[in-house]
Amino acid sequence: MATLRDYRSLMSLAHDPRKPMFDRKAADGALGSTQKYVQTCYQEFRALVEGVPARAEEPPRS
Q1: Does the reported pTM lie above 0.70?
Q2: Fewer Cβ in 10 A, N or C end of the chain?
Q3: Dihedral angle computed from the Cα positions of residues 32, 49, 5 and 24, in that order, rounded to the nearest 10 degrees
Q4: For 1-62, where are the alpha helices, taking DSSP H only?
């Protein structure tokens, strides 16, 4: 359905507070460039979620 980046650095930050990678705030330790990375992660996952219904309705390719 999609190709997403490898968000290893965000995964390690998400384990301790048990929050999604794309829902990290400065209070959770996502500061500076990491916060921008969190925003990019959120945008990519949101585009994936919004694109799934449209792709599911497409006829299968032969």
Answers
A1: no
A2: C
A3: 30
A4: 8-15, 33-57
Which H or E element spans position 21?
none
Report the chain's C-alpha Rg in angstroms: 15
Average pLDDT per run of 10 along the chain, which is 62 residues long? 68 70 71 80 87 78 69
Phi-psi domain of 31 (left: phi exceeds 0; alpha: psi -120 through 50; beta: other): beta
CA 24 remoteness from chain centre = 11
| Number of other CB atoms surrounding residue 14 within 10 Å | 20
Side chain identity at residue 34, one-letter code = T
Q: Rounded distance, CA 26 to CA 4, Å?
A: 23
- How many domains does the chain fold into? 1
Domain containing residue 15: 8-56
